[in-house]
Amino acid sequence: MDKNFHRTFTKCPCCGSEDRFLEQLGDELKARGLAREEWNFHLDVKQGIVVDQVKESAIPIGSEIPGYGIMTDICMDCGCVYAIDLSRSDAKKGLAPGTQMPPNRAQRRRMGRDGRDGGAPSSPFVLQ
């Protein structure tokens, strides 16, 4: 497979319709000023690598591993869930991120005394 493989599907493979549910929902949100113009709306976005978990630990750091990206949406005419974007890329193996240590007792006391918890402000909306 070509390392730069990328394919976009503009029509439903079942009925040929170009009307996609979440794409149109996103357009409505943009028109109302509730979403950024550069955002794309899809039913699902998956990305990852294709590697045997047993052999993954033997792959040296810095090695490139084939990866994929898939975006899906729903046809508004027939309800078919289909891929609208497929891509292949290379992912470079790096070090696993370190785990964050919980605060010790003195740090917890300081956080309680000045009212700061050190975390980012919370939001009812989660962007993924």
Describe the structure.
The chain has 128 residues and is of the alpha+beta class. The protein contains three helices and four strands. The protein has a domain at 6-94. The protein is 20% helix and 25% strand. The model is unreliable at 119-128 (pLDDT under 50). The protein is flat and about 60 Å long.
Keywords:
128 residues, alpha+beta, 20% helix, 25% strand
Overall pLDDT level: 83
Strand content: 25-35%
Radius of gyration: 22 Å
Task: Report the span from N to C terminus.
Answer: 29 Å
Order of helices and strands: EHEHEEH
Mind summarizing the main beta sheet? 4 strands, antiparallel
Q: What's the topology here?
A:
Blueprint: E1 6-8, H1 21-31, E2 44-49, H2 53-56, E3 64-74, E4 81-92, H3 105-114
Antiparallel strand pairs: 1-4, 2-3, 3-4
Structure described in brief:
With 128 residues, the protein is α+β, with helices and mostly antiparallel strands.
